[in-house]
Specification:
Rossmann fold; 434 Repressor (Amino-terminal Domain); six-stranded parallel beta sheet
C-alpha cells in the first residue's frame, strides 16, 4: 500500500513510555502545570524533542471541551483591508495562545451563513465575523440561532446580542466633508461600488449630514451600485460625459478603496486631471495611494487596532471576564492629506461650525 512507508505520528503514549511516566503526567507537562517533579518534566521534554512529538490541538480541545481555536469569516481575502485585518486577527489570537481559522465569504451571504455553521461544527471557541451586509445579515442571524460566542467587525453598528468593532465611518466621512468644504468645493460627487455594505452607507450619511449642516446649498451627487466592473465604469463615464465643464463636480469622495480605483481610472481615461480639474479623496488608505501620481488623499482605517480590539473583546467573552450588555467600539480614523486634493499642496483651513 502507498501508506506503508509513511512514518507513524508519535503519540502521547509514545512520549510517556520513552520518559517512563504516565500519559497524564505528559499532558500536565505540556499544559505547563507546575505540579510535576522537575526530573519528570525534564524527561518528558527530552522525549518530546527526540520523538518529534506534536500535540494534536483538536483532540486536546475535545478532552477539555473547548478548543483553543478562533474562527474568522471575512468578505474578501484579496482586499488589502481585509487581508491586513486577517493578519492582525491571526497575530492577536496567537499572542493569546489561540489558533485562527480564516475563511472568506466571497461577498456571499449564503456562503457566510454556511461558514458560520461550519465553525460551529468545528466547535471553535469563538468567531470573528465581518459581515457581507451588516449585523442584520445572514451570518449574524446564524450566529444567534446557533448561540455562538462572536464579535462582529467592520460593516456593523451597535447590536443587542454581539459586541461590535468598527472604524468610526460616520465621523471620518464628516471630517472629509469639513476638509472639502474648507477648500471651497460646493459640488461634490460621492461614489460607492456597493449598495449593500453598512460601512459604505454610514460613510455616505456621515458626509452628507455634515456637509449640509455646514453649507446648506452644497450640491451632492451620488453614484452607488452593485453592478459589475464594466457597468460601473460606464456609469462614471456617462456621468462626466453628460455634463458641461461648468456643471461638473469639483471634487469626488470615493467610499472604498475599490471605488477609488474605479473613479481614478475613469478620470484618467477621460483626461480629467487631478487635482487641477477635480479633487479626489478616497476611503481606506493603501500603499498604492501613497505612491501614485498624484498621491491620493485618503481616510486611513486603524486596522491593527480593530483586530486587536476584536480578539481581546472575544477572549473576554470566552473566558467569562465580560458578561454584561454588548458594547459598540468605534475606532478613530485619520485623514491622510496628499496631492490629489490639494492643488499646489496648500492645506485648507477647516470651517468653523455655526458660521
Amino acid at each position: 500500500m502507498a501508506t506503508e512507508g509513511k512514518r507513524k505520528r508519535p503519540t502521547i503514549h509514545d512520549v510517556a513510555r520513552t520518559a517512563c511516566v504516565s500519559a497524564a503526567t505528559v499532558s500536565k507537562v505540556l499544559r505547563g502545570s507546575a505540579s510535576v517533579k522537575a526530573e519528570n518534566s525534564l524527561r518528558v521534554h527530552d522525549a518530546v524533542q527526540s520523538l518529534g512529538y506534536r500535540m494534536d490541538p483538536l483532540a486536546s480541545g475535545l478532552r477539555q471541551e473547548q478548543r483553543r481555536i478562533i474562527g474568522a469569516i471575512l468578505p474578501d481575502l484579496q482586499s488589502p483591508f481585509f487581508g491586513a485585518l486577517a493578519t492582525g486577527l491571526e497575530r492577536a489570537s496567537e499572542a493569546a495562545g489561540f489558533t485562527t481559522i480564516i475563511a472568506s465569504s466571497r461577498e456571499s451571504e449564503e456562503r457566510e451563513a454556511d461558514l458560520v455553521a461550519r465553525m460551529n461544527d468545528w466547535r471553535v471557541a469563538g468567531t470573528i465575523l465581518a459581515p457581507v451586509r451588516s449585523e442584520r445579515g445572514m451570518g449574524a442571524t446564524a450566529l444567534r440561532t446557533l448561540d455562538m460566542c462572536a464579535v462582529l467587525v467592520d460593516r456593523v453598528s451597535a447590536d443587542d446580542r454581539f459586541d461590535t468593532v468598527t472604524a468610526d465611518n460616520f465621523e471620518a466621512s464628516a471630517n472629509v466633508a469639513d476638509f472639502l468644504l474648507a477648500a471651497g468645493h460646493r459640488h461634490i460627487l460621492l461614489h460607492g461600488a456597493t449598495r449593500i455594505s453598512k460601512a459604505v452607507r454610514t460613510r455616505l450619511d456621515g458626509f452628507c449630514t455634515r456637509a449640509r449642516a455646514l453649507v446648506p446649498e452644497v450640491r451632492i451627487d451620488t453614484l452607488l451600485s452593485n453592478d459589475d466592473l464594466e457597468t460601473q465604469h460606464r456609469a462614471i463615464h456617462d456621468y462626466f460625459d453628460s455634463r458641461s465643464l461648468e456643471d461638473r463636480p469639483t471634487a469626488v469622495f470615493s467610499l472604498s478603496q475599490y471605488s477609488t480605483l474605479l473613479v481614478l481610472s475613469e478620470l484618467r481615461r477621460q483626461g480629467i486631471r487631478i487635482p487641477d480639474h477635480i479633487a479626489l479623496v478616497g476611503f481606506d488608505d493603501v500603499d498604492w495611494m501613497q505612491t501614485a501620481w498624484p498621491s491620493i488623499t485618503a481616510v486611513a482605517q486603524p486596522v491593527e487596532t480593530m483586530a486587536s480590539r476584536a480578539i481581546a473583546t472575544l477572549l473576554s467573552r470566552i473566558e467569562g471576564q465580560s458578561t454584561g450588555f454588548s458594547v459598540q467600539y468605534l475606532e478613530t480614523c485619520d485623514l491622510q492629506v496628499r496631492q490629489s486634493a490639494v492643488p499646489g499642496e496648500r492645506i485648507p483651513r477647516p470651517i468653523v461650525r455655526g458660521r
